[in-house]
Amino acid sequence: MKSHHLSHMAETLGTRLQGEDILITGVNTLDEAGPSELSFLANPKYAHQLATTRAGAVIVRPEHAGEVKNALICEDPYPTFARAIGMFAAPQGSFHGVSPLASISPEAELGEGCIVYPFVYIAHRARIGAGCTLFPGVYVGEDCVIGNGCTLYPNAVLMSGSILGEGCVLQPGAIIGGEGFGFVRTEEGIRKIPQIGHVELGNRVEVGVNSAVDRAALSATRIGDETCLDNLVQVGHNVRLGRECLIVSQVGISGSTHVGDKVTMAGQVGVAGHLHIGDGVTIGPQSGVAKDIEAGKVVGGTPTVDYTTYLRTLSLMPRFPELFKRIARLEKELADLRGGE
After folding, report:
1. Hey, what's the torsion of the CAs at 161, 162, 166, 170, to 10 degrees?
2. 190-237 tens-digit pLDDT
3. What is the 3-state secondary structure (H, E, C) of 206-259?
4. How far apart are CA 139 and CA 99, in angstroms?
């Protein structure tokens, strides 16, 4: 089990230590942390928990430092706590080297320091950079390129021609480069359109559990640097996702839609095809996007509208039956008045 003195953590995290230099053995929430654990306060509405927490130390902003005995003080506790978690996180898996039970084409190239678990399949002409880790059940198709320092967790799949930048992470069951949904109705019935493009992921892209990024019909489906896909996300063929996007669980993005940089899509957003979503857009949960969205907009609902309007509509929805009754009564009264003229 890893442990660190607060003074070491303060130096590593770039924070200021207040209180005793105790030994920290883990991290936890304010209400569950013990005397040897570190916690944090990011949202002021939980400030009351500082009086009752058993945490050995808390990462806080300067204005809350006086409310705890031991503190790591900084201006932005949440990302600081995220880095603190990394100081205690144990790496997944313990295998080293290249297993003789892996199936590796003699035409494939592996960089230095790769870890290849049993039952990995690496096809002809695949090129894998230095320091990559491939867990059991990983499939790497023909002509794939994987950059340095990538991690592919169990049963992740790269279909032929897929390209990963450096430091990418594919969570278990992620599928990169499966065929896009290409079909056409003809007089003879539905016919399949071959999908002959590929997928390109930038650097430090993460794809969540059982998510799918489809190969392009032609050219490439592209995901920009440091974009993160949650679990159960579907990215259609020829989609372009920009840099540093956050795409939350069960989002579906239809084919040929272009998404700008730093876009956030909350859970269960559905995006129609051939749209353009500008930089910095935020789309609320369970929204349906049917038209282009300008850069910087915050929207929600189906179809999407300005998020403030959407929230007002939500607050009024429970009153709709009452409002309809009032309108019907007013219409009747108006009709009676007109009848008496």
Report:
1. -150
2. 999 999 999 999 999 999 999 999 999 999 999 999 999 999 999 999
3. EECCCCEEECCCCCEEEECCCCEECCCCEECCCCEECCCCEECCCCEECCCCEE
4. 15
Separation in Å, CA 71 to CA 26, 44, 54, 62: 15, 16, 13, 9
Note the Cα 334 to chain centre separation in Å: 55
- Residues 285 and 303 sit within 8 Å (Cβ to Cβ): no
- Three-state secondary structure call for residue 277: strand
Is residue 272 within 8 Å of residue 290, measured between CB atoms? yes
Above 60 in pLDDT, residue 341?
A: no
> Of the candidates 148, 184, 187, 178, which has an alpha carbon nearest to the alpha carbon of residue 164?
148
Our answer to whether residue 8 is catalytic in this structure is: no
C-alpha distance from residue 304 to each of 32, 43, 249, 270, 295 (Å): 39, 29, 18, 10, 14
H or E segment at 73?
A: strand 71-73
Helix, strand, coil shares of the chain, percent, nearest 5, are: 20, 30, 50
Q: Is the pLDDT of residue 314 over 90?
A: no
Query: Is-contact 101 26, C-beta < 8 A?
Result: no
Selected catalytic residue, list 124, 198, 237, 258: 237
Mean pLDDT of 71-97: 93
**pTM score of the predicted model:** 0.87
Q: How do residues 247-261 score in pLDDT, each as one tens digit?
A: 999 999 999 999 999
> Which range is least confidently modeled, 11-25, 28-42, 44-58, 308-322?
308-322
Element (H, E) at 328: helix 320-339
**What are the backbone angles phi and psi of residue 131, rounded to the nearest 5°?**
70, 20
